[in-house]
């Protein structure tokens, strides 16, 4: 704004200048007009005089001739007179026109006039400059005058001093002469005086006195002469110095004169140059003005022609403009109409989309329901209770030599069969699936994935890791940081599934961690981990169980889970036994609860995923435990056999399921009964030294699995279901009764995997 203000100010100043110029021009123009009118008046005057003369001539001729010739001449003259009168009238008219023009449209911005004014200004400037130069010249003249005056003075002074000097010289020479004369006279005198002295000496004392006086006088005179001589010398020196000064002054005068001469010449030159410059500038300006004038005239002509051509264009433009105006006036109506129709179309389209959308949503829901049912059916077909086996690789901790040799082999055709070499005899087992040592965590999880999905659909799921200490339970459930186990993978899958359904469903995932040690339930995430928790029936009458005071963490990301796990690990009770340095003597439970709410229908689902890392299943005698260790082992054995009992009862569909026999089964009651899914992952070590424990675990696994048979065989199995203690005793003499191998199927039954699938299909109706 400031900049534009300044700019405007500048423009204003410029305009004012222009105005002044124009006013000047106007004055000049007025002068011109005035002179022209004066001239015209003079013409008129002369014409009038001529007319008078003619009239006189006519009358003279008329009087002279009185004849026809004279009359002819008179007629001629009268015509001439008339013409002249008309001419005069025209002149007067022109004059009037000019006056009027001047009054009406004073020439305002004729460039020629502008140029003229500018030139005049230049001229005046040049004149001013000339004036200045002249003033300077006068100043210089004055200076010269002063200098000459001073010179004259100096000369005068010099003359005076010369005259003085001459006088002095003369005086001095006169005195010199006098002195010389005196000296001469004195020189001539001594003889006399000596003589007199002599005579006087002889004569009298008076004469002696006179002699003395004379002598002193003589001395005085001699002194005087010396002084005079000195004065003379000084005078001579003075004379010399004054002569020098004179020469100097003369040189100065010469110099001044030369300078004066030069200044004068310079001044003259400058004046001449200025004069020339002035003339040149005037000429140039004049010529330029003429050229510009011509150009302006040409421009004017061009503008005139332009104007002529522009008029038709203007006419067409006006026409166009009018038609456009009409169109603009009609436009709002048109627009409104179009808008109305468009709106109607759009709303109709929206309506259509809406209905299709609703239809699609309905179909989608039905499909979703169907998928859920199908998935459940699939899981059920696979078996609501399944038993997997996993063989860990031989590790460094197994040591070397025959003790660490591999005792487990697999069937290349059937991934559900494994062979154990125990005490020189090969025993075969059939489970739902067997994972060899090289099976990765991912492969294991792929088999578990369907269960996790079921959990989102609202089913309860239990996954157990069973086996002796060091067989890889913790590895399968938790895994390592680089290669996580089922825990993390399940949660990750849950997160991604939940995210995929976020458009329709609101899901909250909470995590609890607990452990059961010596039949006491403890919260691993609570503030007081030593506190024993109780399992109670829900007061709402739903028959569900819950644990008051069990901490639940809401998790939303993998980072959250890691934090929860770290927190839980610290509190896990682990003790050293001679079987494994970090043998876990308690059951660790990770309970993941998935609560979903369908936003559109308000339907709520709750699914529970229980991941249980069971305590080591090894027998007490072997671990060499005593006292509290022994009690621990007894509790573990009891709870494991109770778990076996429960699963057995479930798979054989018994009326009574002994959930209450241990804390573990009681806690997991909801997740084991009804439409829940259970997976038992039996971990075994392939090492030769562990074969008896491996045999035990595999027997447990096969017994759990083989329960699910037809009603007849189930009964038969029912009779042969042993307790955990019996199982242990059994394993010591296992060579005699090698469990349920392939070979022991009844003859009517099909062997292998196909047979088991068919059995499942039959039982599921
Ligand atoms: P448990 O929990 O049954 O006592 P761990 O899970 O602690 O046994 O396993 C004992 C050791 O064997 C660990 O060092 C573990 O890393 C290793 N291990 C177990 N299973 C596997 C496997 N499938 N692959 C590689 N190492 C394994
Ligand atoms: Mg462990």
Provide a descriptive summary of the structure in words.
- There is one protein chain.
- This protein is α+β, with helices and mostly antiparallel strands and 765 residues long.
- Among the domains are: 288-382; 385-575 and 583-706, 3-Layer(aba) Sandwich (Kinesin), CATH 3.40.850.10.
- It has helices at 2-65, 68-104, 111-188, 190-203, 205-382, 441-457, 473-477, 486-500, 558-571, 620-623, 628-651, 663-667, 669-672, 691-706, 711-720, 724-732, 752-763; strands at 385-391, 408-410, 417-422, 425-430, 433-435, 461-467, 505-517, 520-523, 532-533, 536-537, 545-546, 553-554, 574-575, 583-584, 587-598, 604-613, 677-684.
- The strands form 4 sheets. Strands 1, 5, 6, 7, 8, 9, 12, 15, 16 and 17 form a 10-stranded mixed sheet that branches. The chain has a 3-stranded antiparallel sheet with strand order 2-3-4, covered by helices on one side. Strands 10-11 form a two-stranded antiparallel ribbon.
- A hairpin with a 7-residue loop joins strand 13 and strand 14 (583-584).
- Helix 3 (111-188) runs antiparallel to helix 5 and helix 5 (205-382) packs across helix 6.
- Residues 573-583 and 708-765 have low confidence and may be disordered.
- The site of adenosine-5'-diphosphate has 13 residues, from helix 7.
- ATP binds at residues 467-474.
- Pfam families: Kinesin.
- Residues 756-765 have a biased composition (Basic residues).
- GO terms for molecular function: ATP binding; microtubule binding; microtubule motor activity.
- One of its GO terms (biological process) is microtubule-based movement.
